Every structure is written in structure tokens, then in C-alpha cells.
TrEMBL record:
One of its GO terms (biological process) is methylation. It holds the Pfam family Methyltransf_19. InterPro entries: SAM-dependent_MTases_sf, SAM_dep_MeTrfase_SAV2177_type. The keyword Transferase applies. It comes from Nocardia uniformis. Gene3D superfamilies: Vaccinia Virus protein VP39. One of its GO terms (molecular function) is methyltransferase activity. Keywords: Methyltransferase, Transferase. Transmembrane segments: none annotated. This is SAM-dependent methyltransferase.
Length: 264
């Protein structure tokens, strides 16, 4: 890696960089690899969750772009660019798709400037430096790019465990979804407490100095879709959401649930 931005803390682990490490990426530091390896010892399934969460993103965005016809996406808590990012999937379906990424991590933003660029001349790909705890700021900035009179796909992909509280998680989602028009969609997934190893991993990560991540029950997470129309197969394990039936027998389940829902 090149020399880090002075604003980037290389002595404290960061979930986006650890996630990148689990997915085989190179955008991480020694502390991230140390904590990542220790986490794998606690929960060997976590690397599978990282990989399968990206597969869920690909299927969800493909569904919204191709079957629903969405042309606008707001990806909040983007994380580090890897393979098949939201804009690449959406613009491969429709060249004019607009994608706005949101994150507040200096390393993520540095890579966003270099890598998160449109894959087509017709499309728009941009990023906002913002904290999801301030959704009003995100909405104001996103409105400079996205048309809030037309449906938007809002995405929270495995990030809201960083919310300061369960009530804050609900507030963030509700604020954003209240601002988008009828016909918009919410794409949301997060880890659950089904697997005690995953719960322990999150506890140990907090002790390492990283920003705490709070796993919740499936029922607590499903509240995110309250008042919306869940797309089949509903709020389900991310490995089972519209997966090719030929693959189901070989896919490893993980303690993570996700879904896609339409705002009436």
C-alpha cells in the first residue's frame, strides 16, 4: 500500500479494512490483519459472511436495476471498493444509472476518489463524505445528484451495527426512507445473534479499540422494513435471497439476514 493519509489511523483496527482483508483485498494494515486473523479463530465463518454479503449486493442491485427498473441508488456506508461494486452492477444493466456512495472513513474516501467512477458515459457515480448518524446531511447532499421525485434504491449493507443504539438504527432508516418517494426500495442486511461465535467476535473487536458493532436478533432487524412491502423471499438468510436454485445445496449459511422492500 502507499503511505497512508495522516487522517487514517493505522494503529486502530477498522471494520471496512478488516472486511477487505477477509475478502482477499490489499487495502488494509497490519493491525487489521492481526485483528482479522484473531477474529477468524473466534468465528471461522466470518470470511464466508464477507463474501456472501457481496453476492447478496450483486443479486439485490441486479434485481432492482433489471426487474424493477430503478436508475438511482444511494449506498450508505459503502466500505472499501472491491469487486462488483453497486455502480458497476447497476450500470451494467442500465448505462444511465446514477449511484451516490456515502462514507466517512478517510481510507474509503481516498479509494472512492480513485476507483468509484462511472463505468459508462451516460451514468453518474459520486460519493459523499458523511456520517450515517446525520441522515439529513446525507439527504441534502444526495439531492444535488439524485432526483427525489423518482424512485431511489437505498442501501444499508452490513453497517448499521455501528449505530449508537437500536433506536438510532431505526431513526436513521426511517429518516432516509421518509424522504424518498413511493416506489423506492430499501436494501438492508446485517449480522444476527444466531451464532454465538459471531457475537463473541463483535465483543472482542470492541475490546481491540475498533468502533463497536452490535449484532441484533432477526426480529429486531426486520423492523427496518416496517410499513414497506418485502420482496419474495422476504427477510431471509443472505445466502438464500434469490439464489440460483442450482447453487443452494453448496452454499454455506451464515448468521446474517437481508431483504429488499418497496416503499408503497
Amino acid at each position: 500500500m502507499s503511505e497512508p493519509n495522516p487522517a487514517i489511523r493505522t494503529d486502530i483496527p477498522h471494520s471496512a479494512r478488516i472486511w477487505n482483508y477477509w475478502m482477499g483485498g490489499k487495502d488494509n494494515y497490519d493491525i487489521d490483519r492481526v485483528v482479522g486473523d484473531a477474529s477468524l479463530e473466534i468465528d471461522p465463518d466470518i470470511s464466508a459472511m464477507a463474501v456472501q454479503s457481496r453476492q447478496f449486493l450483486i443479486r439485490a442491485v441486479s434485481f432492482l436495476a433489471s426487474e424493477v427498473g430503478l436508475r438511482q441508488f444511494l449506498d450508505i456506508g459503502t466500505g472499501l471498493p472491491t469487486m462488483q461494486n453497486t455502480h458497476e452492477v447497476a450500470q451494467s444493466v442500465s448505462a444511465e444509472s446514477k449511484v451516490v456512495y456515502v462514507d466517512n472513513d478517510p481510507l474509503v474516501l481516498a479509494h472512492a476518489r480513485a476507483l468509484l467512477t462511472s463505468t459508462t458515459d451516460e451514468g453518474v457515480t459520486t460519493y459523499i463524505e458523511a456520517d450515517f448518524h446525520d441522515p439529513e446531511n446525507i439527504l441534502q447532499a444526495a439531492s444535488q445528484v439524485l432526483n427525489f421525485t423518482q424512485p431511489i434504491g437505498v442501501m444499508f449493507m452490513g453497517v448499521l451495527g455501528h449505530a449508537r443504539s437500536y433506536e438510532d438504527m431505526q431513526r436513521i432508516i426511517r429518516t432516509v426512507m421518509d424522504a424518498v418517494p413511493s416506489g423506492s426500495y430499501l436494501v438492508f442486511w446485517d449480522g444476527t445473534i444466531d451464532n454465538p461465535n459471531y457475537v463473541k467476535l463483535c465483543e472482542e473487536y470492541t475490546k481491540s479499540g475498533g468502533v463497536p458493532y452490535e449484532p441484533r436478533t432477526k426480529e429486531q432487524l426486520e423492523v427496518a422494513f416496517e410499513g414497506m412491502e418485502l420482496v419474495e423471499p422476504g427477510f431471509s438468510p443472505i445466502t438464500r435471497w434469490r439464489t440460483d436454485t442450482a447453487q443452494i445445496g453448496s452454499i454455506q449459511d451464515v448468521s446474517a439476514y437481508g431483504g429488499v422492500a418497496r416503499k408503497p
